[in-house]
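Person: I have long wanted to understand how a fold can be written as tokens. Underneath my words sits a plain record pairing an amino acid chain with its backbone structure tokens. Those tokens are not coordinates but codes from a learned vocabulary of shapes. I should like you to check that the lines agree and flag anything odd. The protein I mean follows directly.
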Amino acid sequence: MPFFRDWLRSYQDRRHVRPWALSVPVVVLLIALPLLRPLRHPDADSVSDDERARLATVQALVEHRTLAIDDTAFLDTAAKVPRNGHWYSNQPPTLSVLLAGTYWLLHRLGHTFQSNPNLVAYLLTLVGTTLPVAFAGGLVYRMGRLFELHRPWRAGLALAVVLASGLISYATVLNAHAPAAALVLASAASLIHVTITNRRLHGSVWLAVSGACAALAAALEPAAVPFIVLFGAVVVSLRWTAVQRVAGLMVYLLAAAAPVLLHVALVQRTTGNVWQGCGLGRERLVTDAPPPTTAPDKRGLGVSVAFPEYEDDEPEAASAWQPLWAGLGKVLAAFFGRHGVLSHFPIVVMGLIGVAMVMHRHWPPATKLLASATLAGAMVIILLYALRSIDWTQAMFATRWFVVFLPMTVFWAGVWLRRRHRPVSWALATVLLSFSVVVSLLGATGPLPRDGFPVYTAAGAARNLVHRAAASESPDTGSSYAGVPR
């Protein structure tokens, strides 16, 4: 067995533990695990409607073998839709279906929502959001090889992506935005790996992984849909022959089809709306009344409002320019408003600078197109949500729908790290990074309160944190997490 002996000898000589690569997931877990919502806010009244709806679907799948949530412990959630005499969660069902396997195992071990609800919710949050975010940190460390950075700098970049983009904020509560962002990073990482490998057959496998991850991200969070198309364009720009590029694109699309078809099949068995739960437009208001047997309720969920800074109460069409100025105001608010990207995570500016630097000199076309796709996807999502009339109190901490592109955007700050800079530039970058990290950690203490955030969300998260600490010292106050004034 000379072959086996040689392989075993070479395996023993390999480096099996990479401390810098493991440091990022370990730090993320050390920060996130004590802040998970079931541990910090175990009261049932503090659980957001979206989380209750997802938990309801998980319970229904395991205990009742159905997607209808009629007989679950979370039927009182407002995030539900009546159809065919049953209640269904208005969230995309794919994440709940994936988490059903974890709950099935817990159920077999005797841990159910009836016997130990907080432990079950904690473990589901850990599996569904926290571990994907920790994995994303290690993935960004690996992606940092694209910039030819030393290991400490790659680890620092990975920590900055997770801790300064709001991704750590949503790692502490059950939601689809954080795992979708991790999958977007995984799709981009697969494309990066394809650009640095010379083996076409090996590259086709990574193209399949990229397509599957991008489509699964869109199945979990509909805001990630633009990245399926934009990342597919990156495949066409590879330095392959025309036939190989077409074949690679077909592999990418075929792999992407499976999660999309799964999402469509699940939605047809529930709400019938493939865009349900994306936060755009008006959705139905539900109550705790039993499901109707005739026509469902057509009322709108909440009040559809624009950004508070740019509300327009004047009569229609004072001038032809009024719609243009109103739209521009909403877009500016998406960047600098109460739920704005740059007002919470100014480190994104460094990512934008990195994207601009990629467009110069020696970078391969595929890398340039991947950076452009990141920026284009971010702009499409921002414009889509900014120009639609939605309930911005349900954007929760910062803007939960923007989480899918923020980590990928911050990743391109690694291009800036390649060059030498003056002390003033380093000082400014440190200020932006420090502010973003502090804001993200504030958000991690409670990113999805029951009633949302009607005002500036970083300050609101800080008030919630202080009020929570004061209430724990004075138990007679009778306050709750969901009812903290913001």
The two ends are 70 Å apart (CA to CA).
